[in-house]
Amino acid sequence: MSERIVIVGGGAGGLPLATYLGRRLGKKSLAEITLVDASTTHIWKPRFHEVATGAIDADLDAVDYRAHAHLNHYRFALGSLSGIDREAKQIVLAPHRNSEGEEVLPSRRLDYDYLVLAIGSVGNDFNIPGVQEHCLFLDKRAQADRFHEIFLDRCLRANYEDKPISVAIVGGGATGVELAAELHHAVSLLKVYGHEHLDRRRLHVQLVEAGPRLLPALKEELAANAQAQLEKMGVSVRVGTMVKEVVDGAMLTKAGDRIEADLLVWAAGIKAPPVLAELGLELGKLSLIKVDAFLRSSDPAIFAMGDCCACPMGEDKMVPPRAQSAQQMANYLSRYFSNLIHGKLQQPFEYRDRGSLVSLSRYSAVGQLMGNLRGGNFFIEGWMARMMYVSLYRFHQAALYGWPRTLMLLLAGRFNRLWRPRLKLH
Length: 426
Known about the structure:
Shape: globular
Radius of gyration: 22 Å
Strand content: 15-25%
Helix content: 25-40%
């Protein structure tokens, strides 16, 4: 009987891993690969801010898990993880309900020989009162879609009433910075498509960061450049500002200020999904699953990867929660299971930081790339950085489809621009 490998979570790491294992092992019947996800489609998480503003049409860019599974020799199961029966080697899936709350699928169990948890992370509200009730998040496709719907409604009303529209974003990391820039791009396009009273001058975006500066993952000079470009667009940047409470239509700071806005967005860090605390596995920093150098948890049959795992990287350091980390772990585990089935020796996982890139919508990008030349790294910005940022998504597509199909998708996207609006308007 072939080994049963179950992967829970079809994100930036889980879906490429299922793809690699399906092609390497599933196609040859060397293993039975099953991918589990609570959604039926995949969108690359670093693009959620573009889904939220309508810069991309998620329905066109989405990967359908069932269709992709058929083409890549793995199985797909719809559901969300609610528990693990480690003694029976089974995962427990919660009942699946539709948008109206009707139960479509009952609670189910899936057998595994090896389990890979790739369920990502959720937004960290730091237990601040009112955040969950009054703020929009961008952790899931459904949240990005909801943001898009609310954003278009607010813009429609602002244009009709001939009034400005305001957005307050908490979090000066990549998501907050990219969303602030993308909002300006979206409003400029809405003016083209009939919102004659709305333009970038009437969009008021405030970016609130508790730390001393934006983009702590980047060199200070690049972060300052990104802030200058945001301020040139009209974004008001407030660093060293801590939010103590969120009420309807406003954020209250510890300094006593009141930041009012039509849309309140929370993008201030991540934390472990609550289900991790119920699995009986040893947890590390931030309540993430503690893994060893082979990405194994305290249960040797259970692996963890991506944002949901605490993976050591040298002394007192952890692998950062980035898409590139999940992608490298997917590559590693695909080799690990292939070697395991073929009886080959295993090598430990080694994370290689390839740098960071942050997009400022169509206007620019900033970032730093880690290189082996002279043992250092180099910094890029402007048009070149923007092109490299776009290429990251193409590499993700290539992992899922291969380069021939990726190039065809690129050409199809170019043709779509000839007759489709440059912004999703519905």
